[in-house]
Prior knowledge:
By secondary structure, this protein is of the alpha/beta class. The protein is 29% helix and 29% strand.
Amino acid sequence: xxxxxxxxxxxxxxxxxxxxxxxxxxxxxxxxxxxxxxxxxxxxxxxxxxxxxxxxxxxxxxxxxxxxxxxxxxxxxxxxxxxxxxxxxxxxxxxxxxxxxxxxxxxxxxxxxxxxxxxxxxxxxxxxxxxxxxxxxxxxxxxxxxxxxxxxxxxxxxxxxxxxxxxxxxxxxxxxxxxxxxxxxxxxxxxxxxxxxxxxxxxxxxxxxxxxxx
Length: 214
Ligand code: URA
């Protein structure tokens, strides 16, 4: 597994505003959207392209276009939805599949409660959107789900990551043949006893959408 912390002053600037407890939901959504687009630029460095011949007003030439099958963008419900538009801005022709994962707040274990994805993901590059890589349980389960269906290249885009989550992801994905990259705006200090990232930004879903009951 490769972890890429995007080191850019604009990323740090937007992340600082996102972390601020005084940032309201509408501003949080806008900042998350902008931040994802910056992260997506780095995350799509390996997106597969194929040669494509065109004619400019001046001469024929050869460029590239996105290869087939198209990349698959997979937001993890609920908070990953807040990252979808920012990602699709860079990959408007990608397909979108949805994965609903819930974390048991006592055991911190993740399970799938909904999915809308093709049965066959053979040869697909998947971009998983999950704002908080905290314990790593949700992301590990999501990556297993996608590789079990044949995805052969996974990039996870996370606003924030914790060292404990990255270590668990490494452990749980050990032996997986599929390359996995995590792209994040920052590697924070640690998790607290409730599984929240410190200093973090709080509950990403609540901050995006307001507090909703189960
Ligand atoms: N999920 C969140 O939304 N925030 C955290 O800090 C950890 C998990």
